[in-house]
Specification:
It is a single chain. The chain is of the alpha+beta class and 293 residues long. Helices cover 35% and strands 21% of the residues. It contains 9 helices and 12 strands. The protein has helices at 4-35, 38-52, 59-64, 93-99, 127-132, 197-200, 208-217, 247-255, 273-286, and strands spanning 56-58, 72-79, 84-92, 111-117, 124-126, 135-141, 153-155, 158-160, 165-169, 183-192, 223-224, 227-228. Strands 1, 2, 3, 4, 5, 6, 9 and 10 form an 8-stranded antiparallel beta sheet that branches. Strands 7-8 form a two-stranded antiparallel ribbon. Helix 7 packs across helix 9 (273-286) and helix 8 (247-255) packs across helix 9 (273-286). The longest helix is centred in the N-terminal third of the chain and has 32 residues, at 4-35. The relative contact order is 0.11.
């Protein structure tokens, strides 16, 4: 039989072993909790929500994360930019819109799609028209010269940049100007149709026709009160262009920009003299409707 002292030592050793197992177990539980913390789950949830609820899509960011999706080779029979049959590596645009925006929760008839281009060009079109068409995001040009991702675009004697992305269609006519074929695209924005009307709609009803012509031919490059493209100058704020350009010069410039400026980027538009006069009438009407940007 063990002495009393030996029995006490055995009890102490057994207790110490059990205590160490308990400490190790607690430490392991703490480490597991840290690696599966609710905070980390919440961050992931928030990151996913930013895509689900967003009204803007940063295409460059998605490309950098290799998250745009799987591309396929498509053929555009009559490309209005290159003026010939073209083939592209492209991704179905609706797949991108559904995955990375709040499109499912929108009443599409109430929104426009704005294509933001790297050079400041900002064409827009009705969102419903876009999603009803077979639109694609072209990510590279299959027919580009060897060693290049894109064939050069030459427009009015200027070399334009197609990269990084180009919006193309397979089922619309290249003659239908209501469809936008923007290249050099970097972002997509959903915008309520009525959001900017207070900034660009003329109070003078006689300027309505000029407003409609301006929207169709000018707003993609020029802004009124901050609404529109940034490729060309703002035309109303802080000074309206008709306050420092003579009407006859402005009319002549719109009709033939290259007659006024060497290497001007503004194209020669298919506008009649009457159309140009209506646009100028609209610009004059807006000088009394200046709004801070």
């Amino acid at each position: 039989m063990l002495s009393l002292k030996a029995q006490i030592n055995r009890i102490n050793i057994a207790f110490y072993g059990k205590f160490m197992k308990y400490v190790v177990g607690i430490f392991a539980l703490i480490m597991w909790s840290c690696s599966h913390s609710p905070e980390k789950k919440q961050v992931n949830h928030i990151e996913n929500a930013t895509f689900k609820d967003s009204l803007s899509i940063d295409l460059l960011s998605l490309r950098n994360k290799k998250s745009l999706g799987i591309s396929e080779i498509i053929t555009v029979k009559h490309d209005p930019v290159y003026h010939k049959l073209k083939r592209y590596n492209a991704i179905f645009l609706n797949d991108i819109l559904l995955k990375y925006s709040g499109l499912k929760s929108l009443k599409v008839e109430d929104y426009n799609m704005i294509f933001e281009c790297e050079d400041g060009y900002k064409p827009e079109m009705p969102l419903k028209k876009l999603i009803d068409a077979k639109a694609f995001l072209a990510i590279s040009d299959v027919d580009a010269p060897k060693g290049s991702e894109w064939e050069k675009i030459i427009k009015d004697g200027h070399e334009m940049k197609a990269a990084p992305f180009y919006i193309v269609y397979q089922d619309v006519s290249d003659k239908d100007g209501s469809y936008k074929w923007p290249y050099n695209v970097v972002k997509l924005h959903f915008e309520p149709v009525t959001e900017n009307l207070a900034f660009i709609l003329p109070n003078d009803k006689s300027a309505k026709k000029g407003y409609e012509l301006f929207q169709k031919h000018c707003q993609t490059c020029h802004a009124i009160n901050g609404v529109g493209g940034e490729m060309g100058p703002e035309l109303n704020f802080p000074k309206n262009i008709t306050e420092y350009w003579k009407t006859e010069d402005l009319h002549a410039f719109i009709k033939n920009p290259s007659a006024y400026r060497h290497s001007v980027k503004m194209p020669k538009l298919t506008l009649t003299d009457a159309d140009i006069s209506e646009i100028i009438k609209y610009l004059k009407a807006m000088k009394n409707q200046k709004k801070g940007i």
